[in-house]
Design goal:
Blueprint lengths: L1 E5 L2 E4 L4 E3 L30 H37 L3 H18 L7 H10 L9 H4 L7 H7 L2 H9 L6 H8 L21 H16 L10 H10 L7 H21 L9
């Protein structure tokens, strides 16, 4: 099956390169047909035109890039699974956030090129919670000042992990600032308004919404309407009003689709 064509080469699903070049090696010479000559002793390597070698190099570079991309995606998924094992429900919650984040970003007209970083941030914004003790994470009562201070470190822990991966600079910043508030009262940087990265502002809204509607062992999730009302009441204080508006416009129509896409249901305690 033909996958793509570029620089005179077809890439088949098996990864085999099939040249589509047919050209004279010099004026008046016979036509070269490489389609069945790759690796053949009929043509020595020194006789290959320069653009053939360039094409072969390009193929190898693309192969390595594909392997690196595949490895990074596998690591991201593994981290998400690690979150779920560490704190049952967190990985599922993050998967829904990733689905919401992409939908809101498209609603707001963000460039498609930025969606990957946002999706990673939504998936792994809480990866830093692996540095918070279970006694704090799973405590049902109110946290002490010392416990709250340690819990509030988790965005910094998330940033310190994600920033180590090449190409995830934006995602690490989105994770770092997802607990900032629009009025500047959040943490860890006390950023205000548009000082907060747009990805962080999106994750903040959907993180709060998903937490409100999800059942927990110690409380029942809120109805969709009440969760939306609380988001609206925190416009311009905790949340970016533009993000809230974009979310509200799609939430009621798409909430069932989001839960279906992630294999979960609002009625299931997680």
């Amino acid at each position: 099956m033909l996958c793509r064509m570029r620089n005179g080469f077809r890439l088949r699903s098996s990864g085999t390169a099939v040249s589509t070049l047919t050209r004279p090696s010099k004026p008046g010479a016979a036509i070269w047909d490489y389609s069945n000559q790759m690796g053949s002793s009929m043509i020595s390597r020194s006789e290959f035109p320069t653009d053939f070698l360039t094409g072969a190099t390009w193929l190898r570079v693309k192969e390595l890039e594909g392997q690196q991309e595949s490895l990074l995606k596998s690591v991201i998924c593994a981290f998400n699974q690690l979150l779920d094992l560490r704190d049952l429900g967190t990985g599922i919650h993050s998967t829904r956030l990733a689905e919401w984040a992409v939908r809101i970003a498209r609603k707001m007209g963000l460039p498609e090129a930025d969606l990957y970083q946002l999706e990673v941030a939504a998936l792994l914004h809480d990866i830093g919670k692996i540095g918070v003790p279970d006694s704090i994470l799973k405590k049902e009562g109110k946290l002490s000042d010392e416990e709250r201070a340690l819990m509030n470190k988790h965005p910094e822990y998330s940033w310190s992990i994600l920033r180590l991966f090449a190409g995830l600079d934006k995602a690490s910043l989105y994770a770092l600032h997802h607990h900032e508030s629009y009025d500047g009262s959040g943490y860890p940087g006390g950023l205000k308004g548009t000082e907060i990265p747009i990805g962080s502002r999106i994750v903040s809204v959907i993180d709060a919404y998903d937490a409100m509607i999800s059942n927990r062992c110690y409380r029942k999730g809120l109805p969709h309407e009440e969760a939306v009302r609380r988001l609206m009441s925190s416009n311009c204080t905790q949340f970016d009003p533009g993000v809230v508006q974009a979310f509200v416009e799609i939430a009621e129509a798409e909430v069932a689709d989001v839960f279906a896409a992630t294999g979960t249901s609002p009625s299931i305690a997680i």
